[in-house]
Design brief:
- The protein contains 15 helices and 28 strands.
- It is of the alpha+beta class.
- Helix 4 (265-277) packs antiparallel against helix 5, helix 4 runs parallel beside helix 13 and helix 11 (521-533) runs antiparallel to helix 12.
- The longest helix is centred in the middle third of the chain and has 21 residues, at 400-420.
Length: 627
Amino acid sequence: MSRPIEDYGLIGDMQTAALVSVGGSIDWLCFPRFDSAACFAALLGDENNGHWTIAPVSGADATRRRYRGDTLILEHEWDTPEGSVRLIDFMPPRDEVPDVVRIVEGISGRVEMRSTLRIRFDYGHIIPWVTRHDGVLGAIAGPDALWIRSPVPTKGVDFSTVAEFSVSEGDRLAFSATWNPSHWPPPRTPDPFRALRDTEKYWQKWVAGNLCDPSSPYHEAVVRSLIVLKALTYRPTGGIVAAATTSLPEQLGGDRNWDYRYCWLRDATMTLHAMLDAGYEEEAKAWREWLVRAVAGDPKDMQIMYGIDGRRRLTEEELPWLAGYEGSRPVRIGNAASGQFQLDVYGEVMDALELARTAGLAPDEQTWSFQRVVMDFLEGHWRDPDNGIWEIRGDRQHFTHSKVMAWVAVDRAIRGVERWGLSGPVTKWKALRDEIRDDVLTHGYNPELGYFTQAYGSRELDAALLLIPAYGFLPATDERIIRTIEAIQRELVEDGFVRRYKTGGDTPSIDGLSGEEGTFLACTFWLADALCLAGRREEARDIYERLLDLRNDLGLLSEEWDVRRKRQVGNVPQAYSHIGIVNTANNLTGETGPAHNRAGEYVLSLRRRVRGLPQALSRLGLTLRRS
């Protein structure tokens, strides 16, 4: 039986990430990038598929664990009859090659410890050839080499590397693993204690740059979520992955298992909103540059997701040698949804680029040229059916949410002309905006039922309809929106959490898949947002605080919640879920949040200007003194 998803913590270097269990085992790690093959894949199989465990010989789970302040340095502590010991895990923001550093510290007494290392390249499939070079253990197979440095003697046992040692009070023993291409010579030996200091300083400096209100009751949750979102950013290009894992199931034992280690335009743009609202403009600038590079070409070829470097071919395949998380098969890598047509992403991208300008990023000619080309495409294709926000693998539909987002795209293009003086046929665009709006109100709203429906002609509901007021298509106080919210509460809410839409069990539903899935955490945040915008703030607060209670002890959330088993399910940590923590907190505390209206955007812009005031005064030889 696999460990619960809640048992795992995250470490990373903004190019890849590892999951570390409460038992001190790294059970998931892809080198050298998020989307590379895993060398530790026990998460999706068993210990024979690769892991690295450092823990007391008793094998007990840690007594407690935490992140070191506002960093991504993970600490586990064990209290044993013989004494107490601490394990510190982190990945330094890299220079050239990636490192994992594991430091064992004796707190009291004398504790017997064991390190068990099983390296299995290619997602737990390949046992490497292991040799020693000047005291460094080298594991090599195909293109991969992993170099292990141990302060204590090791021995080979059953195709694994084992070390047994004692730790006394005051001892500090540092282990490390460094990846490089197998045709390179062994890499330099990292200074683990200096790397620890530098990593701590890096995260402290980054967190200090946020604009979050420290008096907010949700400050801790928001800051931790921002750190997670930063950790999911691929630093060399600015791309943002949806999650650090693949194939963690939406239903335990089911086959709804997908690879999320890619850059969805939708997820990335929502991450951008959260980052911008917190004041992280450099991340926004890097993402905008990544976007323009990734989508370069004919807009009809624009994909809904890309590789972290902008790669387009994300061929989906199955890995039969992995048993899957709690038997949830198949395990998949790649994602066939990359070839789908999803109309809504055009609106999300256009909205994000508009918000970036509002936040202080200067209008960029290349970006605006891209937006003009998108508008040309939308004029001829907004009426086309699509696969929708949920990437259905059934027949394409005229999804109401997709049409609303087409309206958003046109509306943000108009703002580009009217607010920023950019060139464009604004009169024609206004007519198009009105045409799309009339189409949605005519076909997306069912007057008999009294609410908006999932698709034109459908009687079903969709949690994505909760976003209609967030993007300004209609106010949350509009009677049609209120009735839609209430219908979703009646039909899609289970135990207080929201399902995306109705799934069909053994009968394929609109998504073309059989089986069920958990309640979708992002959608539950959207419900809280919609209620907050409708003036039902206390109801929204109750939902939000219930969602916070689902986080594990480290503040991490996966994609979904299994209301029957009371467990997290889906890939982890999920950007969508942590975006919700940030944006809904902002709504509840009076910040701008996801309500992309003119007043909110003005406040956002004003906050940026105030933040830059001390620097501006300094350039004039003046200082700003608080009274």
